[in-house]
Amino acid sequence: MILTVDIGNSRIKLAQWQAGIIVARKVSSPADINLATTLDALFSGLDKPSRMLAVCVADEKKRQALVAWVARHWQLSVEFMKTEKQYKNIINAYDDPGQHGADRWAAVVAAHELFSAAPVCVVSAGTAITFDFVSEKGEHLVGYILPSYVTMHRALLGDTANVIADLSMQFIDNEKIPDNTSDAVNHGLHKLLQAGVRELCSSAKQILGESVKIIITGGFAETILNYPDMPKMHHQPDLVMQGLYSIMMQSQDQTES
Fold it and tell me: How many CA atoms lie less than 13 Å away from 83 in the CB half-sphere?
């Protein structure tokens, strides 16, 4: 059994693999701030894996907490994936691939493998909302980053406590004009994100052609999918895990050969 772990800025997710297939998933709550307690709950009930594969875009504290937990409980080393200039026929556009988030790179790899006959626009909707365009030949052409709902809300109001409360307010497409600050901010930010996502997906079609497949993943994906007048999107919640697994298993095969 192999475990893949995605350590983000707001959540930690894991997938349990057997024979190349995900058989179980778990995710921590954004409110879980005690790392030791979070990891205890996340790994509770799991048998010791044969390998632990991870992608981390969070701070070093979270990375080291995972390393320490796995070493203490399972006597294993954590194998962290890094963004490379090339994976198979997929070429990263960044001059310095290290500046391209490892989770984004994993999503790019997985999306290209899923839709290898078509160009793809990979939308990763998490702490930030990122866009990566990839041609059908595997050439990574461009990337864009939008701020998340939480980031913009905090910038406007500067109140972290209210951010958590307002995140429970789902986007509702109606013509009622907000009559209070909380609703005005909430609806305004959703409309801004709706317009931004739609515009960048339109850019993907202009650059890559009408055959482009738009793939979306991340914790904010379902909210975006509920926005009206959006282009057709393929929701792939496990995209980062799939790319992480493919890259790390290929790396092991190359090492053994």
Answer: 22
Backbone angles phi, psi at 46, to 5 degrees: -90, 140
Give the bridge partners for 129, in sequence order. 125, 146
Give yes or no for a contact between 198 and 229, defined as CB atoms under 8 angstroms apart: yes
pLDDT of residue 253: 61
Beta-carbon count within 10 A of 157 CB: 15
Q: Which amino acid is at 11?
A: R
Task: Tell me: pLDDT of 234 over 70.
Answer: yes
Cα–Cα dist 99/219, whole Å: 22
Token output for 251:
């790396």
Pair of tokens at residue 153: 């809300």
At 145, which amino acid appears? I
Helix, strand or coil, per DSSP, at residue 76: coil
* Segment 29-63, tens digit of pLDDT: 755 567 888 899 999 999 999 999 999 998 898 99
Active site residue 253: no
CA 34 to each of CA 39, 61, 78, 177: distance values in angstroms, whole numbers, following the listed order: 9, 11, 20, 40
Is pLDDT of 162 > 80? no
Which is more confident, 156 or 138? 138
Contact 100, 122 (CB under 8 A): no
Element (H, E) at 3: strand 2-7
Choose, from 40, 59, 103, 183, the residue flagged as catalytic. Answer: 103
HEC-encoded secondary structure of 151-217:
HHHHHHHCCHHHHHHHHCCCCCCCCCCCCCHHHHHHHHHHHHHHHHHHHHHHHHHHHHCCCCEEEEE
